[in-house]
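Why do we care about 3D structure at all? Because function follows from shape, and shape follows, mostly, from sequence. That is the central idea of this module. The next example makes it concrete: a single protein chain, its amino acid sequence, and then its structure expressed as tokens.
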Amino acid sequence: MSKNTVRKKITGRQLMPGIFISLAISFLLFLYAPVDLYCANVSEFWFDFSTLLITALGMFAACFAVLAVLYLIAMLIHPYVYRIALAGGLTLFICTYIQGNFMIDKLPPLDGTTIKWENYTILRTEDLILWSVALLIVVLMYVFLKKDLFSRTVMYLSGGLTLMLLITAVSVVFTSGALQERARYQLGGDNEFVMSDEQNFIILVLDTVDSRTFAELLETHPEYAAEFQDFTYFENTVGAYSCTERAVPYILSGEWYENDEPFEDYMRRMYRESPLFRTLQERGYRMEFYDEELYLDALTGAYNRRYYEEQACHMVYMDGVAMIDADDFKEINDKYGHMVGDLALKAYTEGVFSVIRSTDILIRYGGDEFVLLINHVLKDVFIDKLERICKAVSAKKVEGYPQIQLSLSIGGVYKGGPVKTAIALADSEMYKVKKLKNSVSVYEGGE
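And the structure:
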């Protein structure tokens, strides 16, 4: 009797469940998980989403190939071994998905403190219960379902969950701002070594340099030891945060960001209350801080023209830029006087502020003209926000003068290049709808 009459031919249909579960596990571990982590913490990372995606795709492909080969080997050994491997893969996939999405909030924080795992014994208990229940369910499926039905069930479950994860990942990527190009800043060399003739205090920011490199430098050049004797560093530590912007406030203050307030508020508070800065001032060092009030319009609370000239017009890029003009403002001034005109301007800006985010920038560009700068926003969201601004202002009333009807003409540009160029384009769009009043026109620039 030949071998061909004993061993059945392995078909692609038999291998499909193994391919599906391999695809599901690889996608969950090496595509969905890193993409979800990146999108939930976009501001923490210094690299573009494309950099992450290329690496993740490579790991996904490698994992998928390895698992698919293992399932093929299991099938070659015996169909029973193959089905047991399918049961194990399904258990792994389901438990990993549940742990990664619903139990991760109970893990200890990675804030540099020593983790006392004895305080987290409940995690081991919950994990044990989860894996036991999942394994029991899969075993019961294996026992009571016919072998072909069991294989198809594994295939449909893994395929359906993977499709659900794919849809979730795509929606998160497009709504989180992960696709926006990252701004890259470089320090210039102008006046780099211009120092006081008396005494200087120099801060070397090495937040993402492995301290072992620094230790090796001192071993190689012991003559530097005296200069760096007060330099504080920790062995085997890469840094407090993943990027310099977030590390500097911690370095200057020693207070860890607990995520209990907006990071921008924490950063301003650390610069304002830094013990280091306070000590330097007490020792007679001259220090100057940016005064935000210099850039605020006293009447409306928006940024003023000085802020535009010194800051905004030099910005390289903003996703959405809008020019906002108050309809009939001159007529309000002429008919009711400048005091009422001021009240109207306040009502206009209150309507705008009620719609925009704290990170959006509203500038009083001229008498009754405003510039709005919005970053990390999708085109549809940008247009919707401008339309909601129009509706919000139309609903506002001037205090004491309910008969005055307020409205705006707004011209916007999406991805219009440098801010100065985008403002000119937005201004042209605004003039297209100025006669219509209470209208929005948006121009879409290059991607």
